[in-house]
Amino acid sequence: MAKLEAKLGMIVDSVGNFFSGKDQLPWCDPDIVAGCEREVAEAGKQSDEFLQECLLRLSWALVHSKRSQDVQRGIAMLEGSLPNTSDPLQQREKLYLLAVGYYRSGDYSRSRDLVERCLMIAPDWRQAVTLKKAIEDRITKDGVIGLGIAATAVGLIAGGIAAAVSRKK
């Protein structure tokens, strides 16, 4: 009996998470973004390698921000730096962060494409696998909601037509 209750609890939780849109990605507050921006400004006086590390941390903070303008800035930074990245690990990291940015901005198909490119470089990377699942869940959820809206619209139209036909008789 306890096993059945535990399974029912897991089902209820997963359905609740499905419709609430909860994702497993961390959020970043404006204080962290500001701290990363200060770090980048100060890193200009250091080595180029240290500056690149600081820029990557700032990109991470921006794409994980709750503010859409920060997410867009992070996407722009990453897209600008990706063509100049030859190291596979840095490329993997930037592709992942771009995928997070597009996920947060609602462009799920682009996010999925980027995370799949990331998984080509590192097939077992848990963060990327988790993000891919979150993207697929979100696409499924949006599809289910879209179908529900379409079915409701068809029902309303059919009901209106039926009502109009019954009035004519």
What's this, in brief?
With 169 residues, this protein is an all-alpha fold. It has seven helices and no strands.
Question: Can you identify the CATH superfamily of the domain at 23-138?
Answer: Tetratricopeptide repeat domain
**Biggest sheet descriptor:** none
Approximate shape: elongated
Q: Strand share of the residues?
A: under 5%
Rg value: 22 Å
Low-confidence stretches: 6-21
**CATH class value of the domain at 23-138:** Mainly Alpha
Rounded mean pLDDT score: 80
CATH topology of the domain at 23-138: Serine Threonine Protein Phosphatase 5, Tetratricopeptide repeat
The helicity comes to over 70%
Q: State the total count of DSSP E strands.
A: 0
Q: What are the secondary-structure elements, in order, as H or E?
A: HHHHHHH
Number of separate helices: 7
Shape-level CATH architecture of the domain at 23-138:
Alpha Horseshoe
State the distance separating the first and last CA atoms. 58 Å
Structural class: mainly alpha
Description:
- The chain is mostly helical and 169 residues long.
- It has a domain at 23-138: Tetratricopeptide repeat domain (Serine Threonine Protein Phosphatase 5, Tetratricopeptide repeat, Alpha Horseshoe), CATH 1.25.40.10.
- It has helices spanning 2-20, 30-43, 48-63, 68-81, 88-104, 108-121, 126-168.
- Helix 2 (30-43) runs antiparallel to helix 3 and helix 3 packs antiparallel against helix 4.
- The protein is elongated.
- The model is unreliable at 6-21 (pLDDT under 50).
- It comes from Arachis hypogaea (Peanut).
- The chain crosses the membrane at residues 143-165.
- It is a single-pass membrane protein.
